[in-house]
Design brief:
The protein is an alpha+beta fold. The protein has three domains: about 70 residues, no CATH class; about 130 residues, 2-Layer Sandwich (Ribosomal Protein S5, domain 2), CATH 3.30.230.10; about 160 residues, no CATH class. The strands form five sheets. Strands 5-6-9-7-8 form a five-stranded mixed sheet. A hairpin with a 2-residue loop joins strand 5 and strand 6. The radius of gyration is 30 Å and the shape is elongated. About 0% of the residues have low confidence.
């Protein structure tokens, strides 16, 4: 390599040997490498190779091996879901065949689709020429802003596709397409094709919100633990401060939360004004729940000493449209909302549900449902 660069060699001498045409193959060996890839590096090499040569692997005209491991390419799963603006209609398989001409001798064919599971690294287009990926292999997808928008947009993480470019040349490094003045035309025609009223694939990728799996919801336990640990330390004094400044209201009637199986919960106890409080904080992923925040407040008798305990339950629904749209199963987003819900619930208990307090919560739940895009 050093000699090639120093002498600017453009042609190499090759050694030719005759062989049986039925045993055709190519072996690439690396010698005296300054820094051999290891572990994750080797994995990334494999990912890029099988991505670049996926079409040859699918067609079974190429067997690609690295370290004697045969590589295969796994296609991403495609989203099947109703249109974002027609959530009650039948599910659509969000893949669109692409075929258009740019000018005489230049054409594009392939497909564009929406990933079932979003991926910041693996979304984007793969651009093919003569069966090989020229741009957009593995985690380096071709994602022009004109189509994909900003990196924090939903379509940036969901749209992918394979586009075969016929009649185009490659640049001198053979790592990119020689667009000349055709890139703008290509992008405009492609965007028009995937954002039509009949099949608004691009809009679907941006607007659709997918509900997390139960496994992902259960991972939110970290947010629950950190919130409850903090409340356990600070709630006694915080409650006392609020009660001391609150006006007196009549004792409320008891209200109990209906139990649900699909829930994560933690309890803690506090002693306040000669009264024992047992507070339960819940994160529920039960899709049958309609309200985003629920508060329960009741009294139970301890059998051992016949003493009353105030049982308080505060529940946040992770499957509520607002939570699905803005938090999903992201612990960092769930925790601040859970803290707001906990404070909201405790405030209601402290106020002892005067005549208007219950209405405040009902109005809040109804309003936030109406303001959420996904119903």
């Amino acid at each position: 390599m050093k000699q090639i660069f120093e002498d600017k060699i453009e042609e190499l001498d090759v050694e030719t040997k005759s062989c049986n045409k039925n045993y055709h193959y190519t072996t690439v060996e690396l010698f005296d490498v300054n820094r051999m890839p290891r572990r994750r590096g080797i994995g990334k090499v494999k990912d890029h190779l099988k991505s670049i040569y996926r079409e040859f692997i699918r067609s079974e005209i190429l067997i690609l091996k690295v370290d004697n491991e045969e590589l295969s390419f796994e296609d991403p799963k495609i989203l099947s879901a109703p249109r974002y603006d027609e959530p009650k209609e039948e599910a659509i398989h969000w893949r669109k065949e692409i075929k258009f001409d740019i000018e005489e001798g230049l054409s594009v064919h392939g497909f564009v689709a929406i990933r079932e599971k979003a991926s910041t690294s693996e979304a984007g287009f793969a651009l093919f020429r003569r069966g090989r990926v020229i741009e957009g292999s593995y985690d380096n997808g071709f994602r022009p802003d004109f189509i994909f928008g900003a990196p924090n947009s939903y379509r940036y993480q969901r749209v992918f596709g394979e586009l075969h470019l016929e009649g185009f040349d490659v640049n001198f490094t053979k790592k990119g397409i020689q667009w000349d003045e055709n890139l703008e035309i290509f992008l405009r025609l492609l965007k028009d094709d995937i954002s039509s009223k009949e099949f608004p694939l691009l809009q679907q990728a941006e607007q659709y919100r997918v509900r997390a799996s139960e496994k992902e919801y259960k991972a939110a336990k970290k947010a629950l633990d950190e919130t409850v640990d903090d409340l356990e330390k600070k709630a006694p004094q915080a409650v006392a401060d609020v009660v001391n400044t609150a006006s007196h209201v009549s004792e409320p009637e008891q209200q109990i939360l209906t139990p649900t199986e699909k829930t994560l919960h933690r309890e803690f106890e506090i002693r306040f004004n000669k009264e024992n409080w047992k507070v339960s904080i819940e994160l529920s992923y039960d899709p049958s729940l309609k309200e985003m925040i629920e508060v329960g407040d009741s009294f139970i008798k301890e059998k051992s000493n016949d003493e009353s305990i105030r049982q308080i339950g505060i529940r946040l629904s992770l499957t509520h449209p607002f939570m699905v749209e803005f938090a999903g199963a992201d612990t960092n987003k769930i925790e601040p909302i859970l803290r707001i819900a906990a404070a909201f619930g405790l405030s209601e208990v402290i106020a002892k549900r005067s005549k208007i307090v219950g209405d405040v919560r009902r109005n809040f739940n109804e309003l936030i449902s109406n303001l959420s895009k996904q119903q």
